[in-house]
Amino acid sequence: MKATNTVKPRRYDDVAVLFCDIVSFTSYCDRNPPEKVVAHLQELVKHFEELAITYSIQKIKTIGDAFMAVAGLLEKVENPVYNCVLLGRDMIKATVRVEPCWRVRVGIHRGPVIAGIIGDRQYLFDVWGDTVNTAQRVEQKAHENGVFVSKAAWETIRDICPGTSAGLIELKGKGKIEIYDVSAQD
Questions:
Q1: Domains defined along the chain, listed by start
Q2: pLDDT (tens digit per residue) in 135-161
Q3: Cα 101 to the chain's mean position, in Å?
């Protein structure tokens, strides 16, 4: 990037995408001073970043109160979805230990993504595609303090991870797809 001021975008075929969103964050912001909100969010995101490294998962960005990360993109891992499930479970544990003890929802999907860097002033490495959109929509259907995966993600972990079908769930722009609750520990 330093030499050419660009990075060639790439397609990655089998990446797990994780979204973790804080439940009722907006109402928390409305009731608390900004210094307190940012301090608590910073502390939690710091824990999330440390946990992500433990599971060879790369944080892509925070989007408001949502944490977006990927496995299997820049670092090869045996089972990207399973690493994301383990991270999601640990994120829930971290959330209840860090003030103000928020609740989160975690959603995971796997598939192809396009990755690259955008921006001229503030560079941002990012990922795009249907896999990203689906992961976010799975997260939106997860229970509080739950880790949910799409059927495509479930297919890669069903022999190594307990889970139960949440049924066919309507996802915006996707129709009905089966999602699984993998919140229970192994």
A1: 14-181 (3.30.70.1230)
A2: 999 999 999 999 999 999 999 999 999
A3: 19
